[in-house]
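User: Let's play a game. I give you a shape written as tokens, and you guess the letters that built it. Ready? Here's round one.
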């Protein structure tokens, strides 16, 4: 496993990077700075086009001309050249004469790379996602999610109605889980638990990782029935299926009652306080008194500095009607549902571990 820097070192490096970016912003006139911020839309859509069309895969074998790439992808030669040329501006590709090659930043857009981020880019860049983000002013005006206004159903309803987008979404969630895992494993000991229950664990990526870190533990996955076949396959690939029990159902109705660690990764943030309290109340009712609850969430930091959680909070507002929370808000939410928050463990990634136990 790659050795990770201590959290304080990573945070210090992030602060330096933020300071440098802030200095760069102050060196341009404010109107130009605003223009550069808005132009981020162009950058994002360029990355999306490169991922969607499979440009990285076409260049995986080595440098090629735009015409050669276009011939493989079935795209317009001149328009392909213009896309590749723009992608070099953002560091995704390198150009040498009339030939283009993948740069290090472009390699995560390969479909089969171990660290592939292609599914994440396809999820975020998809028009079904972007069309909801275009209604941020309406969401701020009303305080309500906007997926239903755009699609006629909630975001969860869209995933049920649209298997194609659901597949992209679930693959992206699995990839983000894998991306977070080394930073989580570096700060938390999973080997001390005998039965780990993953609530809403999707395709089983996190449970597979936790059981890999806890070779003496058994695992339970609670997820909707439609995702269990893919989860069974993933757990089998990881060599831990024989230690797993898969259960279909809703975590609002019931959760398994025989675990000693209950893990929810980016689940509670999907819901406003009333629904989050209902979910946590179900957990408090069904889990043993001596068990541990672990929420993997982005905890909003105090102060006015840059913070991924503050940006993700708008995503939750728009897409699901949920929210990111501060440490104090998590303590309050857990206390109101019968838990006592024991600690919050930061990582070098945007995710933190909020640990709690059933209150006496």
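Assistant: Ready! My guess for every position:
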């Amino acid at each position: 496993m790659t050795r990770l820097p201590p959290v304080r070192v990573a945070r210090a490096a992030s602060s330096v990077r933020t300071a440098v970016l802030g200095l760069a912003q102050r060196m341009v006139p404010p109107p130009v700075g605003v223009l550069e911020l808005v132009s981020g839309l162009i950058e994002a859509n360029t990355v999306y086009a490169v991922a969607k069309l499979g440009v990285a895969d076409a260049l995986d074998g080595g440098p090629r001309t735009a015409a050669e790439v276009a011939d493989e992808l079935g795209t317009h030669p001149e328009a392909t050249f213009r896309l590749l040329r723009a992608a070099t501006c953002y560091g995704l590709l390198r150009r040498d004469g009339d030939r283009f090659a993948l740069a290090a930043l472009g390699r995560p857009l390969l479909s089969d790379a171990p660290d592939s981020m292609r599914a994440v880019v396809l999820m975020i860049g998809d028009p079904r996602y972007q069309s909801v983000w275009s209604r941020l002013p309406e969401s701020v005006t009303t305080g309500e999610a906007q997926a239903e206004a755009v699609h006629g159903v909630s975001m969860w309803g869209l995933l049920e109605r649209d298997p194609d987008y659901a597949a992209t979404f679930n693959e992206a969630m699995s990839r983000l889980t894998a991306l977070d895992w080394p930073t989580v494993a570096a700060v938390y000991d999973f080997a001390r638990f005998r039965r780990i229950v993953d609530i809403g664990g999707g395709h089983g990526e996190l449970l597979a990782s936790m059981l890999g870190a806890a070779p003496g533990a058994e695992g339970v996955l609670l997820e909707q029935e439609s995702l269990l076949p893919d989860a069974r396959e993933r757990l089998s690939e990881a060599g831990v299926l024989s230690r797993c029990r898969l259960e279909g159902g809703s975590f609002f109705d019931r959760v398994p009652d025989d675990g000693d660690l209950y893990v929810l990764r980016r689940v509670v943030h999907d819901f406003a306080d009333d629904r989050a309290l209902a979910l946590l109340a179900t957990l408090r009712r069904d889990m043993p008194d001596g068990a541990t609850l672990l929420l993997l969430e982005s905890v909003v930091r105090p102060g006015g500095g840059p913070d991924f959680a503050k940006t993700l909070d708008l995503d939750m507002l728009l897409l699901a009607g949920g929210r990111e929370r501060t440490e104090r808000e998590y303590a309050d939410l857990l206390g109101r549902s019968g838990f006592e928050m024991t600690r919050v463990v930061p990582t070098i990634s945007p995710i933190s571990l909020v640990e709690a136990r059933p209150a006496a």
